[in-house]
Write a structure and sequence with these properties.
globular; Rossmann fold; 17% strand; single chain; eight-stranded mixed beta sheet
Amino acid sequence: MFTTRPPVARHVVNILFLNRVYPPAEGATGQLLADLAAELAKLGWQVTVVTSTAGGAAPCSRTVHGVRVERVGILSFSRASHLRRALSYLTLYPAFLWRALRLPRADVVVTLTDPPLLLLLGPVLKWLKGSRLVHWAQDIYPELAEELGVLRKGGWFANFSRHLSTRALRQHDRIVVVGRCMKARLAQRGLEPTAMQVVPNWAPGGRIQPVEHSLNPFRGEHGLAGRFAVMYSGNFGLAHPFEAVLDAARRLEAARPEILFLLAGGGPRRPWLEQQVERLGLGNVRFLPVQPLERLSQSLGAADVHLASMMERLEGLVVPSKVYGILAAGRPCVFLGPQSSEVARIIEDHECGSVLSPADGESLARCLSALASDRERWQRACRRAAEAAKRFGLAAAVSAFDETLRQVCAAAAAPACVMHENSEAATSGSTRQPSPEGEAS
């Protein structure tokens, strides 16, 4: 995907990523990390990922797409029990730290946010091994747990966790956030805005493309001919409200029978949703399983419009990354969530959908009905979505991360972090030139 040229520097720079999930294990952060790590390896960085074992497999070490993947054994993870999840996390932190300490020194350690407070390992590795630190924030804890009712808001544990994470973040050389609203949230903690960089996420796998309805086998397989398909595709998580969606479906069932709601994915709220659909007797709602990555172009493209939702109070704590796949598929998005969130700003800036804040079933039904009735408006929104997707692709994120890592290494002013020549500006939108030569072991 990216072009390369012989680098100037000879020393290989070691980058270590820490995250609980990594393919083939399911999880959005794992897929994003796999996309990024493989492309950074192509640019010459020596990339290692420490992650947990997948599907009960034994701990192992192997190289996949130029990335060294170190899997460590932990207590099996379960979303069904907060206690089981907490115990899994308690076994993960020391296991990750022990494996990282046994690996060759990493010039830069990059922590993600799965599990929460994984960033606390960064300062330990900085102190013991002299690594530079980058935190890649996909969400913000403990605030997210407080707002979802997992932790008591303002309780001693939440406040203690907030104090620890803020101190740890101050020891990081750079904080990468996935939205401007998230940057503002962290700034409220007193963190320096100049230490933060906004790098939006992208469509998973970086391979989603628009597929015309007439050429899309997914529509035929699911009997979508003559239907205006409204899709929610992704995780049915605690952060995503669905009450307005159900109410809109109820209102439209008789008034607009051609409008069909497709709910594809899994997560903790799916059983509740299935129960509500059955209770209300909604014949215009269908459930689909999680769609494989290789079929996302077809499944996302089969819809006429997509839904994304987020609780108002979660603004800046999480950014629904499903919007990037929607844009890549060339489909408009109706966002039910805070007006100032990153997703809302993208949709409004690029005129590729609608933002309903606050959202209710009546306004959503009216919005969907208007879009289904205006073919020209729908086609215009599809074109604008596809155009917007070009600004939020994997290539742009790789360029930004490559630049960030080089800056962090250059600031170290150490021979181990001699970087290659910078011949292009990071904001040019073109592919970065290679980092230090060498391949991952």
